[in-house]
Structures are given as C-alpha cells and as structure tokens.
Amino acid sequence: MTNTNYNKASKYTDLHLVYKNCSGPGGLKLTEFMADKMKVEEGEKLLDIGTNSGYQTCFLAKEYKPFIIGIDPWGEAVDELTENAKNWGVQGNIIGLKVGVPDTNFAEGSFDKVYSTTTLEMIRGMHGEKGYRKAIEEVYRVLKPGGVFGLGEPMHRDVEIPKEILPYVTKGDMPAPWTECFTTLEATVDVLKSVGFTIIEAEEAPDAQLWWEEFAKYDSHAAAKGGDAEVIEKDKGRWLTFGYVIAEK
C-alpha cells in the first residue's frame, strides 16, 4: 500500500461528510487522482457520468476549473448536484442533467474529456456486458478526436474468490451482486480497446486498499453491521481492488 500526497483532497478533512456525499471508495482522493491522470485543465468541456450528489463534480469544478456537464439518471441526484454547486460557489461551471448512458443525446464529439468513477460497473451489473459496452461506445462517440476518457471502477483480481467473502459478493444488495458488477482490469481494457480507444494507462490504483478501508470506516452504510466493511475486512485486498483506465479517442 502506498500513501499518495493528495494536495487538493487533503484540504477537505471531514471524511464523514466526504463519504456521505461520495459513492464507493476513494472520495475526493479518487477524484484528484483521476483528474491528475487525465490532465484536466481550466476551460475544458468535461462530461461527468454518474454524479451522485455532485460532491466530486463540484471538487473538479473548484480545483481544476473545467466546464462540466454532470449527468445522472436519478432526478434527486441532479437536484443535489445543483444545490451542492451553489454551496461550493461553482454553479457557473456546472450544468446537471437527468440523463443516463448510453442515451445521452449529446452531439458526436461534444466533449474534451469524460470522467466516470464508481458508476459504469452498475450498468454491467444491471444490463450485463452488452449494456456496459453500449455505455463505453457512447463515451467514445461524445468525445472529440484526441479526447480523453478517465474511468475508475471497483474491480477484482483474477484470482479465486476467498471462501470467507463468497456468500457476500455473490448475493450483495446492490443492483446486482459484486461478482456481476465488478470485473478485472484486463477485461475492462479489452472493452475499451474493442470500441476504438487507445489505452494511455491502465493499472490498479496504488492506494486501492487505502480507499477501500476509508470507505469501510467513513461511509455510514458500509460501516453498519452486515455492511460492506465486513467483506472488506475479511478480504484484506486479496480479491477486491480498484482499477483505473486513461484512454484516448
């Protein structure tokens, strides 16, 4: 395990608040890590897929200053994004829309960059690999030539599932079990390549275990009895990880 120096995310010290507003592991550390890998710059037009409450979207707008279209298929998430944008003072840099992938209706080549973390694995869980591929195809379509896609997802290593966590990961209460939502880094890379992306970088995040442990500690649902924290503790990073892919159209 490493401990990256998160210069921007470290300013936001209330991790209970961060994880209340951010789905999945990593919180604002994940967002900073991905934005730096993607080289997000001021004034760029960025699509954020799966905003949840918009906390990470607002962090991107405040710390990196792109113009962001944030989309989420759930209306309440868009409302929270709009409210958080006001609270963060970045409402002029963010538009929230109740839209999901692959049905965005954006023009081809609309965006300089596309960011999505802890989101598209849910599409795999609900709609299978075919649905996941359609979502990736849509990302490719709406990017400008030379545009960059940053994808961060919970993933698993290509090893046998430890018996201690097998019942949990095959029967979880997400939209689908973890085994149907999460896949390997190699399988994810193959999908992106197959739709035309050139892979710039693809790895397990160096702080993957730290992010999962923070999530287990500070996310109230994860930390509740019988929640995700139990499987994270039992697994100890043997099967569960977090991967990222930086790709170019």
* Count of the separate structural domains: 1
Q: Per CATH, what is the topology?
A: Rossmann fold
Any low-confidence stretches, pLDDT <50, length ≥5?
none
Name the CATH superfamily classification: Vaccinia Virus protein VP39
Named at the architecture level, the CATH assignment is: 3-Layer(aba) Sandwich
The shape is globular
Radius of gyration: 17 Å
- CATH class group: Alpha Beta
Task: From the structure above, extract its key features.
single chain; 249 residues; alpha/beta; Rossmann fold; seven-stranded mixed sheet; 7 strands; 21% strand; globular
Secondary structure elements and their pairing?
Blueprint: H1 15-21, H2 27-38, E1 45-49, H3 55-64, E2 67-72, H4 75-88, E3 94-98, E4 111-117, H5 120-142, E5 143-156, H6 166-170, H7 178-181, H8 185-194, E6 198-204, H9 208-218, H10 220-223, H11 228-235, E7 240-248
Helix pairs in contact: 2-3, 3-4, 9-11
Folded structure, characterized:
- With 249 residues, the chain is of the alpha/beta class.
- The protein has a single domain, classed as Rossmann fold (3-Layer(aba) Sandwich), CATH 3.40.50.150.
- It has eleven helices and seven strands.
- It has a seven-stranded mixed beta sheet with strand order 3-2-1-4-5-7-6, sandwiched between helices.
- Strand 4, helix 5 and strand 5 form a beta-alpha-beta unit.
- Helix 2 (27-38) packs across helix 3 (55-64) and helix 9 packs antiparallel against helix 11.
- The longest helix is centred in the middle third of the chain and has 23 residues, at 120-142.
- The radius of gyration is 17 Å and the shape is globular.
- The two termini are 32 Å apart.
- The mean pLDDT is 95.
